[in-house]
Specification:
Blueprint (H helix, E strand, L loop, with lengths): L1 E3 L9 H22 L14 H5 L2 E8 L11 H15 L2 H4 L5 E15 L3 E13 L5 E14 L3 H18 L1 H8 L1
Parallel strand pairs: 2-3
Antiparallel strand pairs: 1-5, 3-4, 4-5
Helix pairs in contact: 3-5
Length: about 180
């Protein structure tokens, strides 16, 4: 099994950056509108652990734009929340030297798989994370992409690996995005 998480390389043309920024803003607005007007879910209302309360970045809403029929995984929003919380906890926020508190909203933009010949399967995932300040203002949107390949009989594992790697790619970009804002 191989996992590929492309890194942002080189300079992008101005048009490409603008298009990506507008797409990210649209995704962030979609994430925020999904949570607006609905009562907080039980998962959103759980008490923070002591170590999580001390972190300058916490996870808020999670959502998915992936239809349940298009993935082999069950409860992809729960998997997204689990992976995002684990990645946030793994970051050494002391090194980031953040001056304020921030909230992340995460969205699975794409999660799908396709056969690669008769014996292999390729799964791809795109995750978007929106960074908001203490007042809820949108500050940045980062995106993580990943692809995983596995045996055709292990489609669920390939999708799970792609999701985990895409979350890791998006969340590990957050400290740098915030640093640039300060």
């Amino acid at each position: 099994m191989s996992i590929e998480a492309p890194a942002v390389a080189g300079r992008m043309e101005l048009r490409a950056r603008r298009a990506a920024a507008w797409r990210g803003i649209a995704i962030a607005v979609a994430v925020l509108s999904l949570s607006a007007g609905r009562p907080a879910a039980a998962e959103d209302a759980r008490p923070l652990a002591d170590s999580a309360a001390l972190r300058p970045v916490t996870l808020g809403e999670v959502a998915t734009s992936v239809a349940a029929k298009s993935t082999r995984l069950l409860n992809v929003a729960d998997l997204l929340r689990h992976d995002a919380e684990a990645e946030i906890a793994a970051i050494d926020w002391g090194k980031a030297k953040l001056r304020h508190r921030y909230t992340l909203s995460a969205l699975i933009v794409r999660l799908d798989s396709a056969p690669l010949g008769e014996r292999a399967l390729s799964a791809s995932c795109t995750v978007s994370a929106a960074v908001r300040d203490e007042r809820g203002a949108l500050l940045a949107v980062v995106e993580g992409r990943a692809r995983a390949e596995d045996a055709a009989s292990a489609g669920m594992a390939a999708e799970r690996d792609a999701l985990s790697a895409a979350v890791r790619s998006a969340i590990t970009a957050v400290p740098e995005a915030i640093r640039r804002l300060q």
